[in-house]
Amino acid sequence: MSAAQFYHHCIDATLQQEELRQQGGKYAHLNHDLHVWIEAVGHPLECYQRAFQAFRLIHPFLLPVWFKISLH
């Protein structure tokens, strides 16, 4: 898939998501903000390391698609 095709695919996906948001029903949750809770139990240093590792693992999923495209 070329960069232009990928860009158009992302635009199409964004338009489809907007349509689903407007429909409401089972897609109503797409209108709400996303909140992520990271919690660790243990020694403070170990907790910090675990929380940081968890954040590193989920961080790519929290970035918008347009931001990922501009990084490449």
Mean pLDDT rating: 79
Strand content: under 5%
Principal-axis shape: flat
Helix content: 55-70%
- Secondary-structure class: mainly alpha
- Give, in order, the helices and strands: HHH
The Cα radius of gyration reads: 17 Å
CA-CA gap between termini: 14 Å
How many strands? 0
Q: Name the poorly predicted regions.
A: none
How is the main sheet built? none
**Tally of alpha and pi helices:** 3
Domain module tally: 2
How does the SSE layout of this entry go?
Layout: H1 3-23, H2 44-62, H3 65-71
Would you summarize the structure shown here?
Helices cover 65% and strands 0% of the residues.
What can you tell me about this protein's structure?
By secondary structure, the chain is mostly helical. It has two domains: 1-32; 33-72, no CATH class. The two termini are 14 Å apart. It has helices at residues 3-23, 44-62, 65-71.
List keywords for this structure.
0% strand, 2 domains, mainly alpha, 3 helices, 72 residues
